[in-house]
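Field reference: sequence -> structure
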Amino acid sequence: MWDWVKSHLSGEEEPDSAQPSGAAQPSTTDSAPVPFSEAEIAELVGEPIHDFSLYVQALRHRSLMRGDPESHIESNERLEYLGDAVLGYIVADALYRAFPDEDEGYLTRLRAKLVSGTALAASARGIALHTHLQTAASISDAQAHASDSMLSDAFEAMIGAIHLDLGLEAATRFVENHVLHTRDLKALARQRVNHKSELLEAVQAALQAQPEYLVVDESGPSHAKAFEVAVLIEGREYGRATDTSKKRAEQAAAEIALTHFKQI
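Structure field:
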């Protein structure tokens, strides 16, 4: 039953069991060869894998589907969705255990830093994930390496694939090795996050546009004004926040906008 669920959630059929387990099997929904072998993926994961097709899908960028509405192959977006949730749980659980004396706000801020697009892209570069990413021919290796959005999405999709293929414990080991154990968590907690920069990068990668920050209201006496700032992306509002500092209000609004933008 679980094998059936895995194959249907991933959008892939079960690989032919008659093929050698170590062979680089192409995705069964796309007969074109993939630019990596099962052994290379096992090395990335850090242990033997079972369903190679899940990793083929995890490393397939949506650009391959552009201009081909009849394509039956599936990008890594569904696995990215799953991997994002699995990653969030693993990191939240690890931080809860590692910092028993810290409050919810501390844990939330630290988790956000660990799972930000910039942080995950750095983890992806650490394992040279861009060299395995399948993209449209118009996207160069250098562009893939430079894109935080593409790399962080693929990294989350890999976590989703590992979870479906090998289970939560294997996904946890992968996250520990490439997210949690590579950072000084206490030092990271003291760092400030530039949400405006993260939002700008995400918007430019997806839309080639820029967020616009508008002060929609000012209130209070001159010595203690409160600024309400809204973030607009292509004319649509994505977030709004209020603070006594215009810059802090922009940062808070950008954080909200980033969350909403990623859900689209």
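Note: The first helix runs from residue 2 to 10.
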